[in-house]
From TrEMBL:
CDD domains: Nitrogenase_VFe_alpha. Its EC number is 1.18.6.1. Residues 48-446 form the Nitrogenase/oxidoreductase component domain. This is Nitrogenase protein alpha chain.
Amino acid sequence: MPYHEFECSQCIPERIKHAVDKTKNDLTEALPLGYLNTIPGTLSERGCAYCGAKHVIGTPMKDVIHLSHGPIGCTYDTWQTKRYISDNDNFQIKYTFASDMKEKNIVFGAEKVLKNNILEAFKAFPKIKRMTIYQTCASALIGDDIGAIANEIMEEMPDVDIFVCNSPGFAGPSQSGGHHKINLAWVNDKVGQVEPKITSDYVINYVGEYNIQGDQQVMQDYFKRMGIQILSTFTGNGSYDDLRAMHRAHLNVLECARSAEYICDELRKRYGIPRMDIDGFGFKPLSSSLRKIGLFFGIEDRANAIIEEETKRWKPELDWYAARLKGKKICLWPGGSKLWHWAHVIHEEMGLEVVSVYTKFGHQGDMEKGISRCEAGALAIDDPNELESLEAMYKLKPDLIVTGKRPGEVAKKIRVPYINAHAYHNGPYKGFEGWVRFARDIYNAVYSPIHKLSLVDISKDKIVTDKSFVTRQMLSDSQLDESILNSKELHEYTGEFDSLKRLRGRKYPQYPMKGKLAAI
């Protein structure tokens, strides 16, 4: 096995099995370990199971009060970091709710606090009649019976409905454990409670779609043009009651298999609804997906008409970007299923060379599909930490990384541009136009003139670049030579320095200015 050993992780020998250099040989020789408990001391960037349930799956539901039963930090950490937009004025993005458990609640229990919070939330938003309550580590450890409180409220207020998701942060190795729990809880507790109005001969559930910057609405347009009714979207721009009617669909169309394959499999077992995996990214994968759906319903001609129209409109623009991106090196570090949704098509349709792939919460199957679709020589990493990411970037010297906001900001510090894989920069990225939009964002990142300025090192520049600000470089006695002290620009502003000395003397008399600066 061609394991890749990071210098920064030599003190944690177990990490060597979580990074592999892909060879041209059998894929089984390039598969790192995945979806295991994080090794203590590695400072993982993973999210917890609570985050996977609330932030990824639950929050995109648009007409719901999303309340976390736990400390305020849990709900704050999972609020507004993704652009799950909706057509009801983004209620689910504007507001977040928490029971705000304190130390005394851990000791004496917090069920009364929770009930008061539920009543207060419904009173504050009387038009919203649906709520999801998410368990956190704190409320799980003390054993609060959230389900009993929810049932009490529903008896007292018959017009409301509450869904309880018991997925504390420790419920799985990563946020993927939370995906699993909320999938099963929803199909167990809510599916089958509402009978929908069927308006088409072709009815689907659109599953594993979270409407990031409008992705769902792009795909919805294609489905409507094919005459297909979307019964529910799990869960982007999805309605709580529509999702209770998932049992009446003719087909489950699955986009993100990592987060939502569980509910599709359960719906197939319980209601006989078949599952079809599709891909909304890239011209070729999207075209194939629309044809598959069309073939299932016997309306392939409608799919072909859309493909022909959209390709004719947008392919020339994609080709323009591809010609300018060919050969540029990219690290594809999106976290989950986008690893394999993008790995091959980003190379085939944009000409980018994928030099590294990683996943923070994906399973072995995700890594296997991602590695199989990227080029030989790529570095594959499971559950990386910040130091390993930095070391990989220093070694691979990519022109761009596509990742989440936290590792993206780290990359910017070492002057590597990034595109936000989770919330997008200027999305949506799905659909034919969306894929061109993605190529445009990559092009703008790679060729940004502002980014090129960041590569200019001015740390050793002794020219006074801003006369109203004394840099740390200028304040250093070892760097402040006679040429600066005698410079015309500096002496023109001795008055400013005199004021600075007097102010500092009044505020910080214990730290008088010393050396050459004191002599100015």
